[in-house]
Design goal:
Blueprint lengths: L1 E3 L1 H8 L2 H4 L2 E6 L1 H6 L6 H4 L2 E3 L2 H7 L7 E5 L7 H6 L4 E6 L4 H14 L3 E5 L8 H6 L8 E5 L2 H10 L2 E12 L8 E7 L7 H5 L3 E4 L11 H15 L2
Helix pairs in contact: 7-11
Length: 234
């Protein structure tokens, strides 16, 4: 997997655990000369100098002078998050925009959520854009890839989780109790959460909005609700 952008790259290179997954570092000479981290002895053998044009051809986005080739992202198993007795989990019901996904990951990590669960179909997976948008925080939270969200919800319920789905006509999110083990579900950018997922929720919550707009961006809605879960539990 290729990861690019200065903030993400420096976050990875400063973390010993993440650094072990780095295979090659492609970098412009000017950037290399200005960056003290890259002068480390244990990085020199992995560095390859490239021109800006070569880096442009390698990256799908703005690389800012550095691209890291690292091992593919390793998803966490559902059993692992059950065993860890997590109490704040997020489910994404077919999010398609990598920028939304990355932004949601960053907010979830900032708020102290334990894990994010995603389906393996019709859902953006971890890629370079998601890593860059999350500013590398994708490596700081467990992300679980599952084949069936409804089966997953049943397993979570069996392990003490309350399931909170987000809809357009549910209960005001500020009037709901989020104490206990909470699983918050954020729906697809256009369709919201699916019918079966909605039926399996314990609570359906809504963010009141002005009639002048149809809906909030998925990552914005996720941010509001994620922090309400955290605030409500204090």
């Amino acid at each position: 997997m290729l990861v690019y952008g200065r903030n993400v790259a420096e976050r990875i290179l400063k973390d010993e655990k993440k650094l072990k997954k780095v295979r090659k570092i492609y970098v412009e000479k000017n950037y290399y000369e200005k960056n003290e981290i890259l002068s480390s002895e244990n990085l020199k053998s992995r560095i390859r100098f490239m021109s800006k044009l070569e880096l442009d051809n390698l990256a799908d986005g703005v690389h800012q002078g550095i691209i890291i080739d690292m091992e593919d992202y390793q998803y966490t198993s559902l059993n692992k998050i059950i065993e860890k007795e997590y109490d704040k989990v997020l489910i994404l019901d077919h999010i398609l925009d990598p920028h939304n996904f990355g932004a949601i990951i960053r907010t979830a990590v900032a708020a102290g959520f334990n894990a994010i669960i995603i389906p393996n179909d019709r859902q953006v997976l971890i890629n370079s854009t998601v890593v860059k948008t999350s500013v590398g925080t994708v490596f700081d939270i467990d992300i679980v890839l599952v084949t069936n969200l409804n089966n997953t919800i049943k397993i979570l319920k069996d392990n003490g989780f309350w399931i909170y789905g987000t809809v357009m006509n549910g209960e005001d999110y500020r009037e709901v109790d989020y104490n206990g083990k909470a699983c918050l579900i954020i729906g697809n950018e256009e369709k919201g959460i699916s019918k079966l997922v909605k039926e399996n929720c314990d609570f359906l919550v809504t963010i009141p909005i002005s009639p002048k707009i149809d809906s909030l961006n998925a990552s914005v809605a996720a941010g509001i609700l994620i922090y309400e879960v955290v605030r409500n539990r204090k």
